[in-house]
Description:
Blueprint: E1 2-6, E2 15-19, H1 39-42, H2 46-62, H3 67-74, E3 85-89, H4 94-99, E4 104-106
Parallel strand pairs: 1-4
Antiparallel strand pairs: 1-2, 2-3
Amino acid sequence: MSSSSNRHGGDGGEVRASDILVKHQGSRRKASWKDPEGQVIKNTTRDSAVSQLKAFCDDIVSGKAKFEDIASRFSDCSSAKHAGDLDQSLSSYNSKFNQKNIYLLSRGSEKRC
């Protein structure tokens, strides 16, 4: 699950990207900052990871939870320590997101997961 925001109001300015990563049995590296031994990751199926991400998306879109809070608490990505902020310009990620069929959620626009 990913999020993007444009700090300059959609005028082609800098774009920031954030993510929530849920690793699973098929992940290349079966360890993360919150599961250094990979015990949980090794027992998480891909379907379970997808279900978790869909539930996170539903909570974010409905307003029950904030993206930053979920990223900080549940993401396997090291960006969790920064509320999911990848701290990079989105332009370097854009083609990778498209190749992986990851949707970008823009603040202030229609949200999809």
